[in-house]
Amino acid sequence: MRFFVETYGCTMNQGEGQEMQQKLVSMNHSIAATAEEADIVVVNTCVVIKATELKIMKRMRRLQEEGKQLVVTGCMASVQSSEVMDEFPEALIIPPSSYGSFTGIVSERYGIGDINDDKIQWASNTTFILPIAQGCLGHCSYCITRLARGGLRSYPIEELTQRAKNAVKEGAKELLVTAQDTACYGKDSDSNLVDLIEKLCCIEGDFKIRIGMMNPDSLRGQEGDLARIIGHKNVYKFLHLPVQTGSDRLLKVMGREYSVGEFEDQVRTIRQAVPRLTLSTDVICGFPGESDQDHRDSLEMLQSVRPNIVNVTRFSSRPGTAAESMRAQVVSRIAKDRSREIAKLRFEIASDINAKLIGECIEVIATEEGKTGTTICRDYAYVPVVIPIQLPLGSKIRTVVTESHPTHLVGRLID
């Protein structure tokens, strides 16, 4: 049968979607170019916010109307399986806890296909996503992902290293290490994140590693080791450390087990070792009980820390979470105004940081096709650099930065 994997949400989901595609190919089913051309559509779902959930349900209705056979995976398959089954009774539902049995579950329903020549070429987009664990150790009061994914289950270092070796051998130039919280990797065993990254850095080949999102409480005690490994030539100088709010009072209500001061200290420690660090953080606007002062605290914290990237999200009440029933819900209009104010500040900070890079000569990796006739590349700090010509994906080039924007740089080739 012809299949198509349609993934929503985080990098973790994207990586698991890649794995599902690989398993379906190993079962001799064929990859369709689009969902419309497929017999089976794997809808790899996300339920972090209500808007995404509604979008996915609408999409699945459309696919069902078109006669597609649905395989529903991801977080919705875990925490909202009964709702999915009620509306799509013929769908095959596979939650993350059953991914180890994915091949058997699918083959029982659809069988094994005829031998075909389809192969997964990781080099086609140069990027390989490496999920390193399921679940986390957090207790955030707003997070439905914790309910969907459960407690921490780290994958063995040997297994992860072998998967990464295979990807690099197939031509991958980027390894995106991902989890719900990468810093808690190995805390359920006798390993840790730095041990894993050191093993990956020893793989032969010309590639870069991007370490994915981690929480400040899980990073605690590992700051020095993490700074050292980020300094390795094979690792992007990039840190995604969500703070969520600049208010210590609100952090406690959110169930985030650190203070704003600790977050700031961690950033300071790593920046001292890695001066040109790209710092990405997250902020939730309109969390229940958020006051004007809490919002001002967030603005002041961002002005002080000056992250390169701020992912701004308006609070979305999720079923089954403690935050769903909290009092003092912030009205939508106020939450929207606060998110706009934070976004405005975020772009001002990023504009200032990026403007200082004009004229810099840097080596970049071509990672994806851009808009007509352009290529999106990444420099050593994972900053996107747009080159106004088409380049072979995976190639390395020297460029000089000619323009700066809040979200990216523009460069031209150096002859």
List the helices and strands and how they pair.
Layout: E1 2-7, H1 11-26, E2 30-31, E3 40-45, H2 50-65, E4 69-74, H3 76-79, H4 81-87, E5 92-93, H5 102-110, E6 127-131, E7 133-134, H6 145-149, E8 153-154, H7 157-169, E9 174-178, H8 193-201, E10 208-211, H9 216-219, H10 223-230, E11 238-240, H11 248-254, H12 260-273, E12 278-285, H13 292-305, E13 309-314, H14 332-355, E14 361-369, E15 375-378, E16 384-387, E17 396-404, E18 409-413
Helix pairs in contact: 7-8, 10-12, 13-14
What does this structure look like?
With 415 residues, this protein is α/β, with parallel strands linked by helices. The protein has four domains: 2-110, Rossmann fold (3-Layer(aba) Sandwich); 123-236, Transcription Regulator spoIIAA, CATH 3.30.750.210; 239-355, Transcription Regulator spoIIAA (2-Layer Sandwich); 361-413, Nucleic acid-binding proteins (OB fold (Dihydrolipoamide Acetyltransferase, E2P)). The chain is built from 14 helices and 18 strands. The chain has helices spanning 11-26, 50-65, 76-79, 81-87, 102-110, 145-149, 157-169, 193-201, 216-219, 223-230, 248-254, 260-273, 292-305, 332-355; strands at 2-7, 30-31, 40-45, 69-74, 92-93, 127-131, 133-134, 153-154, 174-178, 208-211, 238-240, 278-285, 309-314, 361-369, 375-378, 384-387, 396-404, 409-413. The strands form five sheets. A five-stranded parallel sheet has the order 2-1-3-4-5, sandwiched between helices. A five-stranded mixed barrel has the order 14-15-16-18-17. Strand 1, helix 1 and strand 2 (30-31) form a beta-alpha-beta unit. The longest helix has 24 residues, at 332-355. 43% of the residues are buried. The model has no long low-confidence stretch (mean pLDDT 94).
